Amino acid sequence: MNSKKKDTHQFAFFVSSLTSFLPKQNSANLRISDEKLFHRIIRVLRMDIGETCVLFDEKHNVHFELVGTEGKKQIDGRVIQKQKNKIFSPAITFFLPLLKREHFEIALYSLVELGATVVQPIVTQKTQRKWSKKEYDRSFQIMVAAAEQSKNFSFPELKKPISLDEACKASSDLEEKIFFDPSGKKLVSVIGNYKDKNLILMVGPEGDLTDAEKTLLQKHNFSFCSLTPTVLRSLQAAALSVGIVRSFFST
């Protein structure tokens, strides 16, 4: 059967544990029983027989052709092509302060779009809220939505929040560490020094870090770099910093 070809956006859908039931060969049949996925593909997107989309999990993505459906949750199709998710280099661990919930979620979405490898939420002295399993689950769904939109199928690992002191102590001396601060050196003037090196990046929270926290970063060998001549909001600085690094170094 030849797939229908349309000059339309190629939609992507996250399927949890997809790798565990993928066929070993291309052109093999694949049956998925998932009510929510059925609703999105058949009821919302209204895919027709012969049309294609991308299915993915944290390890693999497949070009999938719809062959048929049954009931309200069974989807039958054909795997046109299976491949491992592309891992971007260098690896970027982002220390993201626990911002106000809306700002945190916007920043998290951007970090997925732009190719962060790990997102480590950070509790700072100015953090005024707590983290719950409910928020973790919501954050994971935001990451999935960003991965589907951006086609960054190897979306970041989201860790549990820890204090800035714990994060600094756990960081490796093999990684280059950058804190983005208006008082630092211009990133564009020094970015070449970070080629082929894994990175830890961090921005300050609303109201910035305290002087003691900045001293802590310096103690743990963070370089201070500026992104623009203006003062950015945390969520803007997070997106811009990862975007610059990926634009310069991604392979």
Write a structural description:
By secondary structure, the protein is an alpha/beta fold. The chain has 2 domains: 12-84, Ribosomal Protein L25, Chain P; 92-249, Alpha/beta knot, CATH 3.40.1280. Helices cover 31% and strands 29% of the residues. The protein has helices spanning 35-44, 101-114, 133-150, 164-170, 187-190, 211-219, 234-249, and strands at residues 12-14, 29-33, 52-56, 60-70, 74-84, 92-97, 118-123, 157-158, 162-163, 176-186, 199-203, 222-226. Strands 6, 7, 8, 9, 10, 11 and 12 form a 7-stranded parallel beta sheet that branches. It has a 5-stranded mixed beta sheet with strand order 1-3-4-5-2. Strand 6, helix 2 and strand 7 form a beta-alpha-beta unit. It starts with 11 loop residues before the first strand and ends with a helix. The relative contact order is 0.15.
